[in-house]
Design brief:
The chain is an alpha/beta fold. It has two domains: 118 residues, Trna Endonuclease, Chain: A, domain 1; 256 residues, no CATH class. Helices cover 55% and strands 12% of the residues. The chain has 17 helices and five strands. Helix 7 runs antiparallel to helix 8. The two termini are 21 Å apart.
């Protein structure tokens, strides 16, 4: 499969930063209130220790006339808008004047020649283009919940939303793929890649949420995690406070308001209890468990892109633990996520809900899927 020239440099930039210890994700839509603002060629997330996280952007231009000055200004503006710690431009123009301009703007310039020397001959995984191309060979992937869109929405959420809403969006995508890993044996490979990638994004979001809890005791960590996941807010209790305000208005401003408010409160409590946020909160309120989120995110992202499917399910104990907790949370079967057995795809035209026997990612807006707090429809990348 031919890879576009620009995309080739994007893959090199992603690989370079991955080897520097980051989770590096390509082609991420930046959204505001469900409207696409722009996109990031490569988004980086790193962890240096308790309470220390790093987020960065990489703009990539592999052209004869890359307009490097313009790209430096653009990525600097995006860095400030998104609150990222660092900004990089990977470009074919590495003239001294451009380098000096980038330094003045506090942007690091990465010459294309440098990236090619560092990683071009050591790429050992499926590129984003290869994954997408394999999905698109399955003509009915959109009818089966639009696999690509689900992944795109989860990626966008991790960058565009606060940690808890981002986690709920990513875990919704994980639920979709985990269910299909158990119900589509001919295409478990595709479903597992999607599940692992979504679980990686969910781990990043949860790690970002845990950043604020690093110095709390276990009881406080449990309470904050439980409320954040349950209500899907930014961690400030605003959603719960708003619910309380509405119930108070009903109680005092409507005939039989106290009875109605009590009934509504009971119904809401039952609904939120059904989310089973205590499963995630209990496990990750323990610091030794939350500390492994970042390394697991890196591992699962790599497994989603593994060239050999026989290597995909060779997971660490830590990765299996996190996947198991996520599976219990969404009500999926653990066995489907760990089995190394793969069915054989039929040579006939696949039915709705099936994909080719190659690689994959997928996505869902299924109406029968549970809606997690913070979920809202989002545009495709």
């Amino acid at each position: 499969m031919a890879v576009a020239k620009g995309a080739g440099l994007e893959e090199l930039a992603r690989a370079y930063f991955s080897r520097q210890g980051f989770v590096a994700i390509r082609s991420v839509s930046i959204q505001f209130e469900d409207e696409e603002v722009t996109d990031a060629d490569v988004w980086l997330y790193g962890r240096q220790g308790a309470g220390v996280r790093t987020r960065a952007l990489v703009d990539v231009k592999d052209k004869k006339s890359p307009k490097a000055f313009e790209r430096v200004l653009w990525v600097r503006g995006m860095q400030l808008a998104l609150g990222c710690d660092r900004a990089f431009v990977a470009t074919t123009d590495a003239s001294p004047k451009v380098i000096r301009f980038a330094q003045h703007q506090k942007v690091a310039l990465l010459p294309a020649s440098f990236l090619r020397r560092q990683v071009e001959n050591r790429l050992d995984r499926l590129s984003l283009e290869e994954l997408v191309g394999n999905i698109q060979e399955f003509s009915s992937h959109k009818q089966d919940g639009d696999w690509l869109k689900q992944i795109a929405m989860a990626k966008s959420a991790v960058v565009s939303l606060a940690p808890y809403p981002a986690f709920n969006k990513a875990i919704s995508a994980f639920r979709f793929f985990a269910e299909r890993a158990g119900t589509r044996p001919q295409h478990r490979e595709q479903a597992l890649r999607g599940a692992y990638f979504a679980a990686s994004l969910a781990s990043i979001a949860l790690d970002a949420a845990a950043d604020r809890l690093a110095f709390e005791d276990n009881a406080a960590r449990y309470r904050l995690l439980y409320e954040g996941i349950t209500y899907g807010d930014v961690g400030d209790g605003r959603v719960r406070s708003t619910i309380g305000t509405v119930l108070n208005v009903i109680s005092h401003g409507v005939n039989n308001g106290k009875v109605i408010a009590r009934q509504a409160s009971d119904a809401l409590d039952e609904m939120f209890a059904g989310l089973r946020a205590e499963i995630v909160a209990e496990f990750f309120s323990k610091s030794e468990n939350s500390q492994m989120l970042f390394s697991v995110a890196r591992e699962l992202e790599a497994k989603a892109h593994a060239r050999s499917r026989s290597d995909m399910t060779l997971l660490s104990v830590e990765a299996k633990s996190v996947l198991g907790v996520f599976a219990d949370f969404v009500g999926a079967k653990r066995a489907a996520l760990f089995s190394a057995e793969f069915g054989v795809a039929s040579a006939a035209k696949p039915e709705i809900g099936e994909a080719s026997d190659r690689v994959l990612l997928k996505s869902s807006d299924d109406k029968d899927d549970d809606v997690f707090p913070g979920d809202r429809p989002s545009k495709l990348l």
